[in-house]
Amino acid sequence: MAQSRLEEIRKIRLEKLAKLRGLGINPYPSKPSHPSVSVLSSRSKSGETVSVAGRLHSWREHGNVIFADLRDSTGQIQLLFQKKNLESKFDLLNLLDVGDFLGVTGQIMTTQAGETTVDVTSWEILSKSLRPVPDDWFGLKDEEARYRQRYVDLLLNDDLKKLFRKKAVFWQSTRDFLVKQSFLEVETPVLENTAGGADANPFITHHNALDINLYLRISMGELWQKRLMVAGFDKTFEIGRQFRNEGISREHLQDYSQMEFYWAYADYEDSMKLVEDMYKYVAKKTFGKLKFDIEGHTVDLSAPWEKIDYTKTILEKTGQDIRNKSLPARELDQLWKSVRKSIAGPAFLVGHPVEVSPLAKRMSGNYGFVERYQVIIAGSEMGNGYSELNDPVDQAERFAGQQAMREAGDEEAQMNDTDFVTALEYGMPPVTGFGVSERLFSFLANLPIRETVLFPLLRPEK
Fold first, then answer.
1. HSE, side-chain direction, 13 A CA sphere, residue 435
2. 83-121 pLDDT, tens per residue?
3. Which of the 8 DSSP states describes residue 113?
4. Are the CB atoms for 377 and 350 separated by under 8 Å?
């Protein structure tokens, strides 16, 4: 809508607002809750007096009779305003606009067209809108406008609202699955002195009371949850927000939701079995199916989940044998990422070199590789787990190596967390851990991840 036209409409609505106040009508009153539209439509009988509230969606005038549609989050119901029932308050209806919130009382009736309708006997404005809601059909077509005014996009797009209801089911079913497996949900710090648990560049903030710089966490409390294993907890998990100061892409955000679990007296083989069951459970609960078309791949979660080897896969795809090369961790990681996109999955990638896995336990008899796996779906990594390193001497040496990488300019290398090494020195049992982010939801929905976020981060408007 042209800015001049928008300002004209806004001016008219401000004048209506002033008239309502001049008549002693509060355009923004407090109001107790009303039954939802869906409850009203399903349970009310013809002739019954009811009350309902919602947003005016359409307005159709026919002389002394006006029809309108009232919507809330559960549905829509038709309203009938008749001058004979409302007398002088009928004339005040010209101060209302589509987009206003209204509370009405009246009798349930059914029109000749068979539509359930409230024959209004009294009404009250609950909130006056000053800007027109865009037309349903034309809506918000510009992507940035859709993200910047996400509330309008959601108001107009029922499919988008359904998507976020599915996302809520995604996380709730993840939680339900783990609780049924006797995992305890915990909360760990978001602000950290040392950002640990992942290879990532953290955000930095300042704590005024302590006058220190802190990091926003880059993992879902990995090193904290492993401290809980030291403390005697056997099964923990956390679902929350984490933050990485990295690039934006179809698959990546800077702040996003993640789940991580930690399980004592189990290894990465046990973890893989649990994760496969969890993904099937969550996908079925969220989407009602196990077969998905994602980015040109057909992925069937009910099919056998094969294991593919890191070294062998790179050799097959590129002809490079990484066992005969001394490649830095970042080059190894980029080499793998260059070949993974052709793998539809579901599969478990195993056999990672120790260089790319600073927190994973080494394989017995194969010192250069670790007990780690990544879930591969539609050419991307959809989860990461391993048998956790619980040797404090080995962990200290790996942290030192990571710190040297940071000092050489690698901002994503892990920090040297000496306090965590101290915790390991008290003794941590064998533990397996696993993490998965909301990227999995976006892939199963076959949408860019920004489309599956309620309010994506944008630059401020100039």
1. 20
2. 999 988 999 999 999 999 999 999 999 988 888 899 999
3. T
4. no
Superfamily of domain 152-452: Bira Bifunctional Protein; Domain 2 (3.30.930.10)
Domain ranges of the chain: 3-133, 152-452
Tokens 């036209």 belong to residue: 5
Residue range 3-133 in CATH 2.40.50.140: yes
By the 8 A CB rule, do 411 and 399 touch?
Answer: no
Count other C-beta atoms under 10 Å from residue 143's C-beta.
Answer: 12
Whether 138 shows a pLDDT value over 60: the answer reads no
User: Can you tell me whether residue 171 is helix, strand or coil?
Assistant: helix
Distance CA 298, CA 303 (A): 11
CB 153 within 8 A of CB 140: yes
The model's pTM: 0.90
Q: What angle do CA 160, 166, 167 make, to 5 degrees?
A: 95
Q: Say if residue 143's pLDDT is above 80.
A: no
148 touches 460 (CB < 8 A): no
Q: Give the separation between CA 360 and CA 198, rounded to whole angstroms.
A: 11
- Matching residue, tokens 């851990």: 433
